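Colleagues,

Please find the record for the two-part complex below.
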Amino acid sequence: MSQIGAQNAEEGIGTDIPDRAPRRSQRRQQLADFWYYYSVNKGAVVGLVVFAIIVAVAILAPLIAPHDPVLQDRSALLVPPVWMEGGSWSFLLGTDAVGRDIFSRLVYGARFSLFVGLFVVTLSVSTGVVIGLVAGYVRGWVDALIMRVMDIILAFPSLLLALVLVAVLGPGLVNAMIAIALVLQPHFVRLTRASVMAEKQRDYVTAARVVGAGPIRIMAMTILPNCLGPLIVQATLSFSNAILEAAALGFLGMGAQPPTPEWGTMLAEAREFVLRAWWVVTFPGLAILITVLAINLIGDGLRDALDPKLKRS
Amino acid sequence: MLAFLIKRIGLLIPTFIGVTLISFFFIRLLPGDPVIALAGERGLSPERYAELMRNFGFDRPLYIQYLQYLWEVMQGNFGRSIATKQPVLREFWALFPATIELSVVAMIFAAGLGIPAGVFAAVKRGSWFDQSIMGAALVGYSMPIFWWGLLLIILFSGILQWTPVSGRISLMYFFPPVTGFMLIDSLLSGQSGAFRSALSHLILPVIVLGTIPLAVIARQTRSAMLEVLSEDYVRTARAKGLASFRVIGIHALRNALIPVVTTIGLQMGVLLAGAILTETIFSWPGIGKWLVDSVFKRDYPVVQGGLLLVAVVIMVVNLIVDLLYGLINPRVRAR
């Protein structure tokens, strides 16, 4: 990737650098290479397909779900799934204790989980990368201060810190997401800082500086693109982590509040029926597991494709 | 080694100060006035309010309040629980052994299964055994453990009726705590069946808590082992004609374990976080359940003190791991 830097140097001082992006054919080649390495990992391809299905389900939720996810049907309490005795085709996966269709709730729940992942990753990546870039580029006391603050956040078990933060902010999905983003963000700071420190010494950065690029340009346009690999892998892992932690907070009663069809919250409501109606408990957890597993499979594939240093031999 | 030790402890001081700052400000960030919250529904006269503000030191500047708090904390005074009126530290020490027992047994479970599984997967690389172990590890790593716990309860406590649903020991048995560790205390008590009961209460929580560390350790052991197996000294050992299990079990494993030990240490923090969920599901009377309950009861002195104590425990565990790592891997000390 350092040919980008070399190109910069060739352009010479004072001239406007016209098109820094690699040409289209080159980019297509990169994409093909990426896909080649990614698709070697069969699990990663399966993960991607499953994830695509979940995204489709979330987007098309109103078309797929046969019932309103919060509608209570008093005539159908704890109806078992369709293949069991007493099951009904109108409630594929059965109903919960207040007669809500579990399948419809799961379908809508996909929206919440994906939204949580997306929101948390966007927030923690954007803040974490900026802070990490500054720490790694500026060094000195700024760096020391930032890293100590990150150490402090990492000194707490993440779920405990998120739980306490939500207690301060008040329970709810948005506050849970903010808390989780804060807890996950140090990983991005550390990762960005480490890559920046490694890249900063390279010739292409010196070249960019010689050409007269300012610190912000060097940080954002020259160094950052070359640190992206590990960051994308970490972002994928954080996506699945965020879904798990949000579900855990929901399960503890501190995340999304009932009657929101969030998967963790559904499990919390189902807890007392553990020994009476297994389906109320089983399906929301299965949905969480499948989603998280699919994303982690993608993460493994991305690591193989993007980050040769971390590659599992 | 001593220089390494001093440097490492020196790094802890700012972190400790930061952690105390967080736990100090936590209680001040909460919505509402702490004195009014303490007074409850009865309300307060303005004079009484001012008196209480003075008693708690809330009328003094913030930095004085913080220094006061730090001073108290250094002397082991973490405040008193609103619900039980007990000192927070005493409650912590009473419940801590339950969490330690659960975590340590969970770690033994995870390492005891994870290391051999990782070694075999590496040795039989690419086989169906390797693939199924790694598949299982990925599922374990992705597991929402609160759900996993509920599933195990449905199967083992509900359908099979093999294990109890909650608690540390059957109510039939009673003996004074000696060590605080139920497995040891039940043996010391000499009551027949007590140890069995303690063990059957422990088994599901251990599986639930140990699942993620088990998956992480198996994956880490496998990749460390694969790296080591391609080293020259392993080839030399093979060339010398050493038996295969000697090469793998002694020459390779010893070096492969170095990163695994670090992983195990780092998983202790994960375990303490996992204990929050595991203890809640199984009503295990440990630190995790205590903190969750206190958050819900708005027993803020407990949350504040518990948060700080848990962070200190994790810092100490990480320090020990680093020192152990320095002992087994001399290259680290030089850095």
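The two ends of chain A are 23 Å apart (CA to CA).

Comments are welcome before we finalize the supplementary table.
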